[in-house]
Amino acid sequence: MVKKQVMVSPEELARQRDFMALCQKELARRYGEEKAPLAFVKSFGCQQNVSDGEKLQGMLSQMGCGFTDDIQQADIILYNTCAVRENAEQKVFGVVGWATHQKSVRKDLLIGLCGCMTQQAHIAEKVRKSYPGVDFVLGTHALHQFPEIFYGVLQSANEGHRRRAFAVEESDGVIAEGLPVVREGGIRANLPIMYGCNNFCTYCVVPLVRGRERSRRSADILAEARELIAQGYREITLLGQNVNSYGKDLEDDLSFPQLLEAVASLPGDFWVRFMTSHPKDCTPELMDVIARCDKVCSHIHLPVQSGSDRVLTAMNRHYNRAQYLEKVRYAREHIPGVNFTSDIIVGFPGETYEEFRETVSLIEEVGYSSLFTFIYSPREGTRAASMPDPVPAAEKSRWFQELLDAQREVGMVHYQNCVGKTLKVLVEGEGKLKNGILPQEEIDAAGGRVLMGRTEHNMVVDFVGPECLIGQFAQVTITAASNWALAGHWEKPGC
Ligand code: 5AD
Ligand code: SF4
Question: What is the Å distance from ligand 2's center to 369 Cα?
Fold first, then answer.
């Protein structure tokens, strides 16, 4: 059972559906019955945010909107923002500045901001004061109220007295089931299983903007997974800030390993992944599920953040280096060929060069295939933001480069080890040919068109093959590798 106060009531969801219908009428009046208004929706940041963006698109679609990737064509611009690092915020202010400038030429353009940035009071205030062109601001907790907020904005514009809307109240967060979703592509789908975070890592703003952990009922998740499989999706990623906490707030429901196994046991030809797994709660039970379920990819994204015990304690991570390495050892012993990726923060307040070197030695010891690497960015309201941070930015940048150089070597080993192996690949679309390792003769012979797929280890593979393979699994023999991508050969003729 989910705590009642966390679930948005069916009555409230029905009320929002009524607002969608009202928005549709208002939009038709504003843009004419013949032409669907076009929305440009851009999500920054993590998969959770992308998933929220897909719900915003779902609601816009129910209001009769179409979508465009060309912002110049858009009638409605929606930026779904990320607050995790300062540069993400700067990027958003850059694009919002551009969009509001467009509005000085195109008066009927509607601009909205939502996502993690807007849930912070100081950001909402900055938008209110300095970006008057923004019509509405929707914090993460108000996502399901988008129809009502948007209707207010449309109505006020029609009545000739423009009213801006700010729905940014603080909250521990809710769960809104059954919102419409428009997903990108038809091959890989994000499936949120829980929202929020209770961990309060000292550097991280997420618990402040996404509220407390709350899990969806497994029955709702499994129903959505079944629907995705029936729609032909080949890969489902179970999403949560810390999926290992799944179910801890529910009574009489599944744990994360049980949920993962239940999804993997659904009939159909698909892969299951999950993001993100906090090392402190990553249990042998979970690894045993990965080991015994063929459909669960043998890839664990297990963000370590640092290799130094002192820094890990200062980050409030609740594991040490030895405990982390023990989890990796257990996984390697029980899951043949398991692959690890990670997140690393360089230059946490007070980190010394020696402590940073412990991170480098850890990545060499674990042997990650790839890393997401970040220079520490102070976030207002977090504990780390008030810690002494004496190391100059230029010094942190040097350490960062050192980390990238080390990982290049570590990653290369993984990619080179794939050469000569035949791997199952989920074909996602046309290759962008950025890896430069597929021989030019092969590319020319294929008329310049190659395919791109991903292995269960999340390694990108470019290869020549027919278009009908897109959305299918294919066996590809790896012929060459760089330190971040593979090239291969698909030998089966026809489809
Ligand atoms: N500075 C730098 N990196 C951060 N991350 C989270 N907060 C910060 C911050 N303040 C990184 C962590 C996390 C990933 C999603 O973003 O590595 O795992
Ligand atoms: Fe942020 Fe830590 Fe929660 Fe991840 S587990 S979202 S890093 S507070």
Answer: 22
Mean pLDDT of 460-484: 93
* Comma-separated ranges of CATH 2.40.50 domains in the chain: 422-489
What's the CATH number of domain 185-297, 3.40.190.10, 3.40.50.80, 3.30.750.210, 2.115.10.20? Answer: 3.30.750.210
Of all protein residues, the one whose alpha carbon is nearest to atom 16 of ligand 1 is: 84
Residues with CB under 6 A from ligand 2: 197, 199-201, 204, 206-207, 241-242, 278
Which whole-number Å values give the CA distances from 144 to 9, 148, 239, in the listed order? 11, 9, 18
Which residues lie with the beta carbon below 6 Å from any ligand 1 atom? 84-85, 203-204, 303, 305, 343, 345, 374, 376-377, 379
Q: Give me the torsion for CA of 330, 312, 300, 459, rounded to 10°.
A: -130
Task: Report the predicted TM-score, pTM, of the whole model to 2 decimal places.
Answer: 0.95
Buried b (16+ CB within 10 A) or exposed e, 195-227: bbbebebbbbbbbbbbbebbbbbbeebbebbee
The per-residue pLDDT for range 282-330, each reduced to its tens digit, is 999 999 999 999 999 999 999 999 999 999 999 999 999 999 999 999 9
The CATH class of 298-416 is alpha beta
CATH of region 10-167, choose from 3.20.20.70, 1.10.3430.10, 2.40.280.10, 3.40.50.12160: 3.40.50.12160
Task: Tell how strand 422-430 and strand 451-455 pair up.
Answer: antiparallel
Please identify which residue in the block is written with the tokens 């929707």. Answer: 138
* Closest C-alpha residue for ligand 2 atom 2: 201
The per-residue pLDDT for range 390-408, each reduced to its tens digit, is 999 999 999 999 999 999 9
User: Does the pLDDT at position 2 exceed 70?
Assistant: no
